Amino acid sequence: MPARRYWLVKSEPSVYSFQELQAEEGGEAEWDGVRNYAARNTMRDDMQVGDGVLFYHSNSKPNAIVGYAVVSRSGYPDHTAWDPKSEHPDLKSTPEDPIWYMVDIKAEALFRSPISLTQVKFDNELKDMVLAKNSRLSVQSVTPKEWKVILTMGMSE
DNA sequence: GCCAACGTTGGC
DNA sequence: GCCAACGTTGGC
User: Fold this and answer.
1) C1' nearest to CA of A118: which nucleotide?
2) Measured from the CB, is A63 under 7 Å from any atom of strand B?
3) pTM here?
């Protein structure tokens, strides 16, 4: 069994917040609608059941990592792509030949102390995070060190 | 295969 | 609300 890895997903809280994930049955949801190839590749190829997932609120006040989750199902085709009524249809993707993939994630805990983007940028151990460097990637990797620092900060008073 | 035009993300 | 940065598309 491969070592546990760590990831970060972004969502605009006005669209889908961490609290909404927590309110799902079992705190679990499909991470659908991602239409970016780098993020797709991560979900399809790299994310495994049990991996840790930081949950980031973008376009928010403040922008912050607000909680963490766990991968509860590894990559599989995103069926919303071939549903014309879905939020992000892409009819080039079909059940026979899917283009877009997703994972399922399950909420673990809301942080007592959310970690703002500003904090990340000014923290020596966090300033090299993908989050601080590439503002446009909605599914990204997190190092074990970054994960540990963020969990400690987030769960403290 | 290059690159200009366009659309989107997301910080400020 | 603005706009920089980036990803994607499509003409050549």
Assistant:
1) B11
2) yes
3) 0.95
Which domains are present in chain A? 6-151 (3.10.590.10)
Task: Give the distance, in angstroms, between residue A8 CA and nucleotide C6 C1'.
Answer: 19
Distance CA A15, CA A34 (A): 13
Give tens-digit pLDDT for A62-101: 999 999 999 999 999 999 999 988 888 888 899 999 999 9
CB A65 within 8 A of CB A48: no
Contacting residues for A51 by C-beta, under 8 A, at least 6 apart? A4, A5, A6, A7, A70, A71
Q: Is the CB of A140 within 7 Å of strand B?
A: no
Give the tens place of pLDDT for each residue, A27-64: 999 999 999 999 999 999 999 999 999 999 999 999 99
Please give the DSSP secondary-structure letter assigned to residue A81.
G
Residue at shortest CA–C1' distance from C7 = A36
Q: How far apart are CA A34 and CA A36, in angstroms?
A: 6
